[in-house]
Amino acid sequence: MPDLPELAAAFTAALHDAGIAVGPDRTRSFARALTLLAPSTTRELRHCALATLVSDPEQIELFDGVFREVFGGAADRGAQRGQPGDPPRSLPNTVPGRVPGTRTDTAGGRGRDADAQPRTAPVPLAASPLDRLAGRDFADLSAEELARLSEVMRTLVLRTPTRPSRRRRTAHHGARIDLRRTLSAGRRTGGYPLRLRRFAPRARPRDLIVLCDISGSMEPYARALLQLLYCAARATHAEVFTFATRLTRLTPVLRRGGPDDALARAGRAAPDWSGGTRIADCLAEFNERFGRRGMAHGAVVALVSDGWDTGPPADLATHMARLSRVAYRVVWVNPRTASPRYRPLVAGMAAALPYCDAVVSAHNLAALDDFAAALYARRCHR
Q1: Coiled coil: which residue ranges (predicted)?
Q2: More reliable by pLDDT, 290 or 256
Q3: Sheet containing 162-170: which strands, arranged edge to edge?
Q4: The CATH fold of domain 153-158+206-376
Q5: Where are the domains of the chain?
């Protein structure tokens, strides 16, 4: 008789092979549900698995097919309903009242198979709101879902690679000798430095710069991406800009007050909201006013745009090349790339691609993991 971990691992592995994304967290939740609820029928077992392993209603049919193969046709929902007087069907190869591998208390004769009573507990039939929200496109979210998304995004941490700073730290295998500490320690041994003291530069996170397109073509994603800008502005060494027909620095606005007030002020501070798009002109302004002053030197720069530009593509390529020469890493965030039919046919996007280290979609909550990973990755050699 298989034990509980083997049951959970085998079933979740079968789901994963069938195309349902089942990670270690959901496997652990499934095993915990089996331990707490101790389902005695295949219907109860299906409810446990459905509540912990499935996050999209479209996956239920595929889930039932895998469940039917593993547990011998017990996943037929029509047959599970039965008649009011019908006895419930037991799990295959199990004793009623027990899940394979669960322990029973034999002290004092309690917990025997004949006396075991199945536990009853309400089983949720749908995934949590957060799981359902993870796969939804930002452009399709309602106002209530956007409010829930804001709460989740406040816990998002955007990290960048480290860079050596001018500050030093003691290191046993440092590349340079700390002459002052070496001579100071030598006074304890008659003036002879018996041990060389070394130091290495301290590491600090690289600056993060986010330039977000708020033109009309990006309006379906603007509400969610503005919350992403708030998260970026709260990060250490971060600068946030928006652009459509002009460049607007929003860092001071987003760093003051609570998230709701900050987002409202940010919307009022950008006068070109849902306007036209002049990516090349705004990027040229950023390079001239901020990039040359050192803001972009060695920084990770994220450009959030679909690539629609009213200017000549050659101008955008020129300013992107200039930016890539001073920035440590350039990440382009284009929600349109989430579609499998997407092709970089827009002239602006095609002109910018050769100067990007990574292109990600960030079109939903699950895709933000790729965005965070792209920011934290090391520079690739072009």
Answers
A1: none
A2: 290
A3: 162-170, 198-205, 176-177
A4: Rossmann fold (3.40.50)
A5: 4-127, 153-158+206-376, 167-204
